[in-house]
Structures are given as structure tokens and as C-alpha cells.
Amino acid sequence: MAKVNDDVITLGNLKSRVASFLQRNDKSNSLSQPLENKEVLKLVLEQLVAEKLQIHEAKKIGMVVTDETLENALADIYKNNNISSEQFE
């Protein structure tokens, strides 16, 4: 579907992300009007490309997130929102 530097975004990646996007938006009812299939595909593909570009830039400047930092950030999210890891997932 797209190539970002050396990374490839496959149709499978896109379909999986579209399914997640639609599920999230259906549960939250955040979309006031249903989007057309092409609009959803375009929006999600743009998000995937942006993520790949951000990851490449982070690697380029040497940004590294340790497991400990990630665990601490997740613990803060759980605590601040009074939820468990299962509820978060």
C-alpha cells in the first residue's frame, strides 16, 4: 500500500488498523457522520505513514525508550485513570 523509507505498509497492516479504527469510533461514537470507505482508508493510511516517519526520525536522533520508562508511563496511566491493565487494553 505504501513504502516509507525502507518500511512497507501492507494491505494487511492497513486492514487491521482500519478495523481497530472503526471499532474504536463505533464504541466512542466520536464520528458525527459515517465516513466513506475511501475516506477511512485514506485517513488510516496517512496515520500509518506519519507513525513510520516519526519512528524513523526518533531513531535518527537517537531517541530510545527503555522498558522501565514504558512500564512507569503505563503505571501512571493506570493510576491517574483508576484502571487496571486489562481495562486499559
Q: Please state roughly what percent of the residues sit in beta strands, choosing from under 5%, 5-15%, 15-25%, 25-35%, 35-45% or over 45%.
A: 5-15%
> What's the pLDDT, averaged over the residues?
87
Topology, number of strands: 2
The helix content, as a percent range, equals: 55-70%
Backbone structural class: mainly alpha
Helix/strand order, N-terminal first = EEHHHH
Any idea what the radius of gyration is? 16 Å
* Main pleated-sheet profile: 2 strands, antiparallel
The parts where pLDDT drops under 50 for at least 5 residues are: none
Strand order of the largest sheet: 1-2
Number of helical stretches of at least 4 residues: 4
First-to-last CA distance: 28 Å
Tell me, briefly, the overall form: flat
Based on the model shown, name its key terms.
about 90 residues; mainly alpha; two-stranded antiparallel ribbon; 4 helices; 2 strands; about 70% helix
Protein architecture, described:
The chain is mainly alpha-helical. Helices cover 69% and strands 7% of the residues. The protein contains 4 helices and 2 strands. The protein has a two-stranded antiparallel ribbon. A hairpin with a 2-residue loop joins strand 1 and strand 2 (7-9). The protein is flat.
